[in-house]
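Chapter review: from sequence to fold.
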Amino acid sequence: MVKSFYNPPHLLVKQAVTIMLYAWITGWKKSAFLRWTLQLQNLFHAGAGARQICCFGVNPHVVWEMTGRCNLKCVHCHAFGGETTPGELTKEEGMALIDQIAALDIRTFVFTGGEPLLREDLFELIAYAKSKGFTVFIATNGTLITKEVAKLLRKYNVGVVIGLDGMNPEVHDSIRGVEGAYDAVIEGIENCIAEKLYLHLNIIASKRNFDEIERIIDYGSEIGAYSYFIYNFVPFGRGEEIQDYALGRADFKALLDLILKKQREVRAIIIPVASPEYWAYALQHRGIHSKRLINFLGRFVGGCSAGKGMMYIKPNGDVWACPFLPVQVGNVRKESVDMIWENLRQFKFEHDENECDDCEYARVCGGCKTRMMLDDSTYTCPVNKRAER
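The token string follows.
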């Protein structure tokens, strides 16, 4: 069984310190921060078992990409969502996977895809994960969340992660590849709100929708979103076909400025994804250069999550350190999960000249390993000029 959120008590203390340090680093206004922390049920849901905040949220956690099947054709999809992936783990294999992960000190389990709501056994697997004590999220495009589905999610106390890429229907639909996707996702979000579900919004930040990002954050604030991931678009998977959507240096810096600005104001936590430089940028803005202080903060803020607590499981059981980093560290059909977990913790990014190692903020950032690997000649860092390729 998975440990309860309050076990051990010292972990709760570390989580409290972590979030207070996060608020201090970002300059989160006290009134907004307190209104966020007082939503205790959501707070415990968000931080289940967390030992750090990293660029993919809590460390550690497991994400299972349980199917490639999807009803949308998102232009940026790293998973090539559309058709069922050959050799997907069965329900029985999924339950065995959940059993093995429950034996590790991991408490957050995320079901994603593709579109996980297209798997007929999804709620059986959610129920099984809940029976083991996991805090569960579902990452979905939101278009299939009917009132009945929302009630089921409420029944199992599932946190809902929904992708929204524009408040302009034309922009959202063009990115999601299906006309009417915007109207469907807004209806899905409203059904979640009606059931008082934990609501998290995912935003993919690219040149195509940059002007929509602040509007989405404001919309989330109005409806009560508790958290956001803002992904720095990585041209991986289907996204390789639209590499010109990727943010350049100036746009990336503008994105970090926008996130810092909105974080100070909103009653939700905003975590940049594929942007560990955010933490270094925020500290630099505060004029913090003390090695001792930065190393201390590194115990709570982990930067890039690859090798620091994320287990990303593909439909066929392959395990990656990050959904954008196609380096297999094991397969749950062939190896025990505890062995794979140890491989992940020993994961090392191979690069001949990683200037990030010499950066004063390396302990809280370390650079985005995915962006370096995919195209290190254009890697941009707003803090460490030596890391420019």
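Two observations follow directly from the output. The chain has a mean pLDDT of 94. The CA atoms of residues 21 and 43 lie 16 Å apart.
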